[in-house]
Structure formats: structure tokens, C-alpha cells
Amino acid sequence: MFFFFLKILFIYSTEIETASERGNTSRGSGRGRIFFFPVSLQQRVAELEKINAEFLRAQQQLEQEFNQKRAKFKELYLAKEEDLKRQNAVLQAAQDDLGQLRTQLWEAQAEVENIKAIATVSENTKQEAIDEVKRQWREEVASLQAVMKETVRDYEHQLHLRLEQERSQWAQYRESADREIADLRRRLSEGQEEENLENEMKKVCRKILVCRSVRIRTQDASADLTAATADLSISCTKPHCVMPCVSLGSS
Predict the structure, then answer these.
(1) CA distance 151 to 235
(2) Signal sequence: where (predicted)?
């Protein structure tokens, strides 16, 4: 429509120049002669003004539709944010469970330390009982560490699988969303109106939100995996996990 409007303006300017030349010729050929623009030229000017008004109305309508679709996109975005908050709450609950396991391990180690102190006082008369306590302590610590290792191993495996799947989905959604956004921008810049434009923008909005959700979950999962692995390494290499047995045996 815009190029058609420019073409009409060019024809209009050409006719005005031709009419001006004819008017100058007619004025040079005799005195007192007055040149009037032809009726067809006046009609053409009226048509151009009408086309210009229609173009402005169409442009205003496109802007209104774009504002409405932008408001719908904002609603979809806020809804997805609420969904992400719920997912983060579930992840936080899992992290709390893991923290409880760590607390139980530390409590067991503290209890062993107390038993060690009591057994040291009567070591000469109760060596066999002390040996039994040490054996039970080793078994309890080994059992708790095995549970921790197995839990972290399973959690790490699940996170790796989920990370790979979500990375692949993120790449696909992002590529598809970029293509559709570029196509929508091209259509808006050309002033095209299509019946399914609103549905396409909704699809793009959903894909953008899914990309963001996948990216956030991937970052959170990576951070949780790193923290869990580091905590397990620290718990398994703490000196007080093995020193009680050595001190009891050497005293």
C-alpha cells in the first residue's frame, strides 16, 4: 500500500508539472489568458487525499491491534512466572530434604564423639565394649555415607539427563521463536493483516516463555548439582570422620 501511494504521488507531481508547462505556454501566447487545472486533475488530488486518509486509518488500526496483543503477551508472561515460582518451591523442598540428611549425619558423628569420650575413661576395663562401639560407629558412618553417595549419585544422574533434554528443547524453542519473531516483524513493517496473526504471536510468546523456563531450570539444576557434589566431598573428607577410631585405638 505504501509503494502504491508513492506511485500515485509521482503521477500527481508529473501531471502538475505538465499542467504548469501548458499554463506557461498558454500565458506566453496571448495576454489576459487564464489557465485552469483540468477537472480530472482535481479528481485525482481528491482520490489521493482519500487514499492517504485510508492509509492513516489502517495504520492506526494496526497500532491498536499491536497494543492489544502486547497486553495479552504480558498476561501470558505473568502466568508463566507464577508457574516458575511453584516449580522453585518444589525444588526448594527437595533441597530441604537433602539438608535434613546432612543434619542427621552430623548428629550421628556428634553422638559418636560423645561415646568416644565416655569409652576413653573406662578403656582399661571395657576394651571389648569400646571395640564394639567403634565397630558400630564405623558401620553407622559407612551406612550414612553410602546413603548420601547413592542419593547424590541418583540425583546427579537425573540432573544430567534433565539438563541434556532441556538444553536440546531450549535450542529448538529458541531457534523456532527467533524465526517466528523475525517473520512477525517483517509482516508488521509491511503493514500486512492476517487472520491468524494473533495465534502466531501467542505461539511465539509461549515458546519464549518456555525458553526462559528451560534456561532458568538449567541454571538452577547446574548450581544444585555443583553444591551437592561439593558438600558430599567435604563431608566424606572431614578429619573427624576417621580420627575418632585412630585416637581410640592408640590410647
Answers:
(1) 14
(2) 1-18
Per-residue pLDDT of the chain (251 residues; tens, 9 = 90+): 555 555 565 565 565 555 555 555 444 444 444 444 456 777 888 888 888 888 888 888 888 888 888 888 888 888 888 888 888 888 888 888 888 888 988 898 888 888 877 767 666 666 777 778 888 888 888 888 888 888 878 877 887 787 788 778 777 877 877 777 777 777 766 655 554 556 666 666 666 666 666 667 666 766 766 676 666 555 555 544 444 443 433 33
- Residue listed under C-alpha cell 489502517: 58
Listed as own residue / partner, the contacts of 141-145 with beta carbons closer than 8 Å and 24 or more positions apart are: 141/108, 141/109, 141/112, 141/241, 144/104, 144/105, 144/108, 145/105, 145/235, 145/236
The CA distances from residue 16 to 11, 31, 108, in Å, are 9, 22, 99
Q: Would residue 230 be called left, alpha or beta, if left means φ above 0 and alpha means ψ between -120 and 50 degrees? A: alpha
Q: How far apart are CA 30 and CA 24, in angstroms?
A: 10
What size, in residues, is the chain? 251
Mean pLDDT for the chain overall? 71
Q: Kindly report the CA angle at 243 between 145 and 102, in degrees rounded to 5?
A: 30
Written as nine digits, the cell of 27 is 500565458
Inter-axis angle of helices 127-190 and 197-236, nearest 10: 160
Domain segments of the chain as ranges: 71-120+128-250
Phi, psi of 187 (to 5 degrees): -65, -40
| Residue 242 DSSP SS3 | coil
Residue 194, phi then psi, degrees to nearest 5:
-130, 150
Rounded distance between C-alpha atoms, residue 211 and residue 140, angstroms: 45
Cell numbers 553407622: residue: 140
